[in-house]
């Protein structure tokens, strides 16, 4: 009898594949110079995130995945770090030269 993957293993692979799809679509959106193509990649990223969220909910319901609970201090720290990073990125974009490398034409 061939080796059979468990439902949990299949769900985990689906979740990981969807995370990778979202990451690759986001990277493609950042590299795309065509606005309509960029929007397509942004939509593909959002779709993959929604699908992964559905898989994660099923995994949580079945006890296959137990996410760690974030405390308020950690959330505030992450929000502060993201705000600081966004400010630094905005400042870099305003600097002479734009702070960015030229985009490849996709």
Automatic annotation (TrEMBL):
<dbReference type="InterPro" id="IPR012851">
    <property type="entry name" value="Spore_coat_CotF-like"/>
</dbReference>
<dbReference type="Pfam" id="PF07875">
    <property type="entry name" value="Coat_F"/>
</dbReference>
<protein>
    <recommendedName>
        <fullName>Coat F domain-containing protein</fullName>
    </recommendedName>
</protein>
<dbReference type="InterPro" id="IPR012347">
    <property type="entry name" value="Ferritin-like"/>
</dbReference>
């Amino acid at each position: 009898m061939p080796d059979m993957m468990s439902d949990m293993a299949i769900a985990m692979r689906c979740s990981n594949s969807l995370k990778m799809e979202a990451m690759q679509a986001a990277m493609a959106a950042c590299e795309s110079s065509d606005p309509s193509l960029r929007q397509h990649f942004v939509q593909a990223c959002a779709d993959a995130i929604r699908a992964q969220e559905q898989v994660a909910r099923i995994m949580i319901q079945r006890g296959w995945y137990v996410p760690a609970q974030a405390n308020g201090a950690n959330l505030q720290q992450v929000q502060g770090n993201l705000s600081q990073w966004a400010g630094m990125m905005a400042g870099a974009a305003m600097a002479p030269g734009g702070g960015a490398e030229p985009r490849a034409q996709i």
